[in-house]
């Protein structure tokens, strides 16, 4: 059965789950407009995750996706952590603050939080998706027994083949243009494939539906990917300016004036694409020490961002965004969905050529 029919939705337009950006109202509006809404719950504890899912279910009876981070947790390395704190000390000092003594994990992994699986089983969202890999087999078996489909983000063919083997019902194929964290299972192994290149590699080898993600801003781009074999497109950056998103006004302002993005691992400890600022242009220096690891570096970066902002300096703002940032449209969720749908329908392929 084709993906949209399986989900019971009309349009192949999926909101990307974005921790800190997606909200119940944004997710429900996208789903109500005929796409697939999403909640990025990677930074939530079980209580917060359940509250967000139930709030969304309260606002729509349409399906939506919930998403968690499945990174392999590593203990903090005290030597690396000390070196990273020493390296960032001068940046804190310019705001008259000492670098914090301790590095904290910004959040945990789904794999270490059994209560999150309980929340999924209790709330039964239409789909659960994972970023940075898949949870262990017993967890996947529990989802299978409960008939809850699961997807995973992939960045290369070998990850997609593994996802297929592990019983995923679709893969999210994340190209290098994507905003936010690169989804590789192993952060050191990045194929660097573009959204189109990845799709071209996956289509002949993967029988699962493929959801393309990365740099997609218009209905015409979505049609282009559908023609090449994608079942749907997942858009993140395009939805950040919506009033329904949780992004702050300051972040939205930064996005609206951005003229480029770049990938760096110095902010969180894993490679991620965001609007170019001091992190990419200065802190990610060729002679920097190794960062403190994910997600330990992230907590420190968030502290520096907050401190700088409190003193009116925005160069350290963590502003994840994809390559399409310069094509952003300042539209709220429903008008953006209407625009994307109208653009899709301009192409006769969408209305006549494709199978659902
Ligand atoms: C601000 C932001 C936060 C993100 N957070 C998540 C997340 O929590 N989980 C996830 O699977 N992907 C996350 N992503 C990646 C998206 O799922 C998706 O791959 C990406 O947004 C697609 O590229 P685009 O932003 O160019 O549309 C995030 C992306 C952005 C821009």
Automatic annotation (TrEMBL):
GO MF annotation terms: monooxygenase activity
Presence of keyword Oxidoreductase: yes
InterPro entries: Aldolase_TIM, NMO
Family: Belongs to the nitronate monooxygenase family. NMO class I subfamily.
Keywords recorded for this protein, A-Z: Detoxification, Flavoprotein, FMN, Monooxygenase, Oxidoreductase
Protein name, per record: Propionate 3-nitronate monooxygenase
Keyword Oxidoreductase appears in the UniProt entry: yes
SUPFAM superfamilies reported for this sequence: Inosine monophosphate dehydrogenase (IMPDH) (SSF51412)
Catalytically driven reaction(s): 3 propionate 3-nitronate + 3 O2 + H2O = 3 3-oxopropanoate + 2 nitrate + nitrite + H2O2 + 3 H(+)
Cofactor(s) named in the record: FMN
């Amino acid at each position: 059965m084709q993906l949209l029919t399986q989900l019971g939705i009309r349009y192949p337009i999926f909101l990307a789950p974005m921790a800190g950006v997606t909200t119940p109202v944004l997710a429900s509006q996208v789903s109500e407009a005929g796409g697939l809404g999403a909640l990025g719950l990677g930074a939530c504890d079980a209580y917060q995750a359940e509250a967000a899912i139930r709030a969304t279910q309260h606002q729509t009876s349409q399906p939506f996706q919930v998403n968690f981070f499945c990174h392999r947790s590593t203990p903090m390395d005290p030597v690396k952590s000390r070196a990273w704190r020493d390296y960032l000390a001068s940046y804190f000092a310019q705001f008259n603050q000492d670098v914090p003594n301790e590095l904290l994990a910004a959040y945990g992994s789904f794999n270490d939080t059994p209560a999150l699986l309980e929340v999924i089983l209790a709330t039964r969202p239409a789909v659960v998706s994972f970023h940075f890999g898949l949870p262990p087999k017993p967890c996947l078996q529990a989802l299978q027994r409960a008939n809850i489909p699961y997807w995973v983000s992939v960045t290369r063919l070998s990850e997609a083949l593994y996802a297929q083997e592990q019983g995923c019902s679709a893969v999210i194929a994340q190209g290098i243009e994507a905003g936010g964290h690169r989804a590789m299972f192993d952060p050191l192994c990045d194929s660097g494939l573009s959204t189109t290149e990845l799709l071209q590699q996956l289509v002949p080898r993967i029988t699962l539906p493929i959801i393309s993600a990365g740099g997609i801003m218009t209905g015409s781009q979505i049609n282009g990917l559908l023609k090449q074999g994608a079942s749907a497109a997942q858009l993140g950056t395009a939805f950040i300016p919506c009033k329904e998103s949780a992004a702050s006004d300051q972040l939205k302002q930064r996005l609206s004036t951005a003229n480029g993005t770049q990938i760096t691992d110095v902010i969180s400890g894993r490679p991620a694409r965001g609007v170019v600022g001091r992190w990419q242009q200065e802190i990610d220096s060729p002679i920097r020490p190794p960062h403190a690891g994910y997600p330990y570096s992230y907590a420190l970066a968030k502290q520096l961002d907050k401190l700088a902002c409190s003193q009116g300096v925005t160069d350290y703002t963590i502003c994840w965004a994809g390559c399409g940032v310069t094509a952003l449209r300042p539209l709220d969720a429903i008008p953006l969905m209407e625009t994307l749908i109208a653009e899709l329908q301009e192409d006769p392929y969408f209305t006549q050529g494709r199978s659902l």
